[in-house]
Amino acid sequence: MSTTIVTPAVHARGLTAGYGGTPAIHELDLEVSSGEIAVLLGANGSGKTTTLLALAGELRPMAGTADVLGCSARTRLDRRARSGLGFLTEGRCVFMELTGWENLKLGRGSAADAVAHFPELEPHLHKKAGLLSGGQQQMLALGRILAAEPRLILADELSLGLAPLIVQRLLTALRGAADRGAAVVLVEQHIRHALAVADKGYVLRRGRIALTGTAEELNADADAIARHYISGES
C-alpha cells in the first residue's frame, strides 16, 4: 500500500531573523498544513510581525530553515506570491485613491469572486477606498486575497481598530478559506476570538516561542496567556 506524504505549507526549523544584523526572533519551529489556522499570540514587540515577514520572504533568515509552499528560505516575496501566497499586512492594504472596484481588479482573482466573499461591500464599491470605513477597507483587502484562492494566507492584525462584529466576520472568512484547503498564519491580539477559529497557536515572548498547543489547550489557559505573555509579565 502506498503512503501519501503531505508536505506542510509552512515548515520552519530554528528560524532566526531580524533587522540590521540584530535578531528579533530566535530559533522558531513552526509547522502549518493545508486546512489549518495557526495563530501567533504575544505582546507588541514579541516578534509576531517579524515572523510573518520572514515566512513571506521579505526578511531573509539569519539562521535556520523556512520552507514555505515549497519555496526555500531565500525565495523572494513576489515568487512566493506566484506560488499561492496571500499576505495581508498590518494596516489597511488598499489603495485609498482608487475605488473599491479598481482595488479588486488589481488582485489575482476576479472582482466578482472577491465580492462573493463579502457581498455587503457591493453597494459601496463605486466609492474611493479612502472613504470606506475601516471594516469595509479590511473586507476589501481580504476579499481581494480570497478571490485568488491562495494556498497560504499570512494575516497581520486584521482586526486592528475594528468593531467586534466586523472582527468576527473577517475571522469567519479566514476559517472558510482554511476549510477550503488554505493554510493560514494569523497574528491577532484578540485571544479568544482568534482561538475560536484556529486549530493551534504559538505564544511568542521576546522573540521566542514560549508556549504552543492546540486551540483548545491554549483557550483553556487564555487567562494565563494574557497575564504572563500578552501583558509582558514574567
TrEMBL record:
Q: Does the keyword ATP-binding apply?
A: yes
UniProt cross-references to Pfam families, sorted A to Z = ABC_tran
Q: Which residues form the ABC transporter domain?
A: 10-231
Family annotation (InterPro entries)? AAA+_ATPase (IPR003593), ABC_transporter-like_ATP-bd (IPR003439), ABC_transporter-like_CS (IPR017871), BCAA_Transport_ATP-bd_LivF (IPR052156), P-loop_NTPase (IPR027417)
- Record carries keyword ATP-binding: yes
Q: Name one GO molecular function term.
A: ATP binding
User: Which keywords accompany this UniProt record?
Assistant: Amino-acid transport, ATP-binding, Nucleotide-binding, Transport
Q: Which family does it belong to?
A: Belongs to the ABC transporter superfamily.
**Name of the protein described by the UniProt record:** ABC transporter ATP-binding protein
Q: Which organism is it from?
A: Nocardioides dubius
